[in-house]
Each structure stands twice: as C-alpha cells, then as structure tokens.
Specification:
The complex is a heterodimer of chains A (110) and B (114).
Chain A (H helix, E strand, L loop, with lengths): L8 E5 L4 E6 L8 E7 L6 E6 L2 E4 L4 E4 L5 E6 L8 E8 L12 E6 L1
Chain B lengths: L3 E4 L2 E4 L5 E7 L5 E7 L5 E9 L2 E4 L7 E6 L2 E6 L8 E8 L9 E2 L3 E5 L1
Parallel strand pairs in B: 2-11
Antiparallel strand pairs in B: 1-3, 3-8, 4-5, 4-9, 5-6, 7-8, 9-10, 9-11
The chains are: A mainly beta (110), B mainly beta (114).
C-alpha cells in the first residue's frame, strides 16, 4: 500500500490560495490520488481525485507531476469555512484497504 | 451524506456492556467500512465488507465484530465495551463498480464508555 506524507498543519488567510502537498513515493501504476475534507465531528467528504496531470472542479484543483510521486491540492481564495482537516489517499479499488493518515489541519485566519 | 445513516448518533455506556452501532445506505454500493477516529488522529479502519458474504478485518479489529445483514446494512458490535473504545465511529460506503473507490461517509456515532 502506498504511504502518504503530508504536513501536519498549515495556516493561511482568507482570500489566499492554499496549496497542500502530499508525498507518495511508492505509488503504484494503478493507484488513484484522492483528497478528502473533514470538518469537526463530521465524516470526511470527497473533494477531488486524479490519476495524472491536472484535475479541476468547482472546489479545488489537483496537480500531479509526471512521476506521480507527489500531488498538490490547491484551494483558491480560501475562506474561514475552509478550516478543516484534509486527507490525501492513494490507492486502487482492488486494494484490500485504503489508509487514511492523520491529514493536514488547515486553519484559515481572518 | 444523507445517503449513509448511522444510529445512534450519540451513545454513553458502561464498561462491560454490549453495544451495537448500525449503518444503513441507500446508495446501492457494495462496499461498506467501519472506522474509528480518536482526537488528533486520523481515521483507522476496523472492518470492511466488499459484499454480503465478505467480511475483512482492518487495522484495529480486536474487541469489535461486524455483521453485514444485507447490501444496505452493516453493523458494528462491541461485545464488552471498554473505556479506550471511546471514540467517534464512522461508517462509509463505496461502489465496487468504479476504479476510483471514492468513499461516502455517514455522520458518525460518538461513543463514550464509562
């Protein structure tokens, strides 16, 4: 199973762009990269997923370099409501299990 | 996600009691999971099931058991609750038919064992 490493915490200010990088050096060929967002006392919520290059949706962008050994979640113009824990996961549906790490605790300041 | 429901939402019990947490889903997904989350820690997988006849242990299955009563229902039991099982418990589902295996989580059950 591919292990991921991401910063434990980050602070930013409202209106800024926030980039959270996740390292996954032993990613396998079939693995997808998925990011989840979790607010206190709620279940994680899917944000974005990608396999290679760049993916963008209405919430975020995901940048994946050619070697796929890392990925960067980009949140444009954050607001206070983006304060949450963000998890980076790597895996494939045939895996026995996909592991959630401790995530990155993002704190947005006014 | 309203498609995944958990009952009860909060439970306080005493050491040694048997507790069952229930999860139901209307998403039609084959896969279901039980996680626990402790303060400051990420989610840890307890059990998972890929279909009604398939049950697998996760990272921390000791002290827990599960039952997959139907495709839509997956229950977690604590046979004899102990205080260090106090945690937030989440159920999740995913669709076996998709390669991406995106998981959809319930609202959680906060369990306190005194």
């Amino acid at each position: 199973l591919a292990k991921t490493t991401q910063p434990i915490s980050m602070d930013s200010y409202e209106g800024q762009e926030v980039n959270i990088t996740c390292s996954h050096n032993n990613i396998a060929t079939n693995d997808y990269i998925t990011w989840y967002q979790q607010f206190p006392s709620q279940g994680p919520r899917f944000i974005i997923q990608g396999y290679k290059t760049k993916v963008t949706n209405e919430v975020a962008s995901l940048f994946i370099p050619a070697d796929r050994k890392s990925s960067t979640l980009s949140l444009p113009r954050v607001s206070l409501s983006d304060t949450a824990v963000y998890y980076c996961l790597v895996g494939y549906y045939r895996d026995d299990k996909i592991i959630f790490g401790k995530g990155t605790r993002l704190h947005i300041l006014p | 996600d309203a498609d995944v429901t958990q009952t009860p939402r909060n439970r306080i019990t005493k050491t040694g009691k048997r507790i069952m947490l229930e999860c139901s889903q209307t998403k039609g997904h084959d896969r279901m999971y039980w996680y626990r989350q402790d303060p400051g820690l990420g989610l840890r997988l307890i059990y998972y099931s890929f279909d009604v006849k398939d049950i697998n242990k996760g990272e921390i299955s000791d002290g827990y058991s599960v039952s997959r009563q139907a495709q839509a229902k997956f229950s977690l039991s604590l046979e004899s609750a102990i205080p260090n099982q106090t945690a937030l418990y989440f159920c999740a589902t995913s669709d076996l038919g998709t390669v991406s295996d995106t998981q959809y989580f319930g609202p959680g059950t906060r369990l306190t064992v005194l």
